[in-house]
Amino acid sequence: MDIKQIYLDADAMLEGHFKLSSGNHSQFYLQSAKVLEDPKTAKKLADALAEQIKADGIEIDTVCSPAIGGLIAGFALAQALDARYIFTERVDGAMTLRRGFDVKHGEKILICEDIITTGGSAMEASAAVESLGAEVVAFAALANRGFCRRENSDIVAKPNCKLPDNLPFFALADFDFEMYAPEECPLCKAGSEAIKPGSREN
Ligand code: ZN
Q1: Residue 48's pLDDT is what?
Q2: How far is the centre of ligand 1, averaged over its atoms, from the C-alpha of 191 (Å)?
Q3: From the CA of 33, how far away is ligand 1's center (Å)?
Q4: Which CATH number fits domain 39-175: 1.10.10.10, 1.20.1050.10, 3.40.50.2020, 3.40.50.620?
Q5: Where exactly are the structural domains of the chain?
Q6: Could you count the other beta carbons within 10 Å of the beta carbon of residue 62?
Q7: Which residues, at least 6 apart from 199, have a Cβ–Cβ distance to it below 8 Å?
Q8: Ligand 1 centre from 132 Cα, in Å?
Q9: C-alpha 13 to ligand 1 mean position (Å)
Q10: 0.70 cut: is pTM over it?
Q11: What distance in angstroms lies between residue 146's CA and the mean position of ligand 1's atoms?
Q12: What's the gap in Å between 91 CA and the centre of ligand 1?
């Protein structure tokens, strides 16, 4: 499966000059929601991700996603794994389990995002369920931005990857295109201005 082509076909990989939520600049921006607006594509991607996870033999009771980015990918993956599905959301900035969701002591949880960049939100969701007694056993995303090491890839983790190196991280592809600190951005140096995609002004 050519994940990059699926993103391109869905106009979900934008090319230009973008300011990412991390503050870094990039020539590319991924808008996974555009890929997942077709439920058949969401199912196809989730089924492929579930195959990898099942092949690993890891036991998973529940999939948990950090809202909003991970919601659709996580739900589709839970369906493919025949697992329970819950999500965390920010309350006053803190990732929290709400809406009557609960976890059992020792419940085995996989944290699922749409894209893992450094894994910051995934780790916040992980901390939220572990603080209630659950056990996070794996991480997953449709794609890896190339900062973390995923299963079945040669890419090595960079120092800013926040995922623990003792737990597996499953993803379908590496989208490891360059990101730049604003002061080192060649696109800025060429005179263009970075825009924030998907924000209110766009
Ligand atoms: Zn720039």
Answers
A1: 97
A2: 9
A3: 24
A4: 3.40.50.2020
A5: 39-175
A6: 21
A7: none
A8: 41
A9: 17
A10: yes
A11: 19
A12: 31
Q: Ligand 1 centre and the CA of 177: distance in Å?
A: 14
Summarised one tens digit per residue, pLDDT across range 8-41 is: 999 999 999 999 877 889 999 999 999 999 999 9
- From the CA of 21, how far away is ligand 1's center (Å)? 13
User: Are 163 and 169 in contact, with CB atoms under 8 Å apart?
Assistant: yes
List of the chain residues with pLDDT < 50: 200-202
CA of 63 to the centre of ligand 1 (A): 36
The neighbouring-strand residues paired with 91 are: 94
What confidence score (pLDDT) does residue 201 get?
42
| Span from the CA of 186 to the centroid of ligand 1 (angstroms) | 6
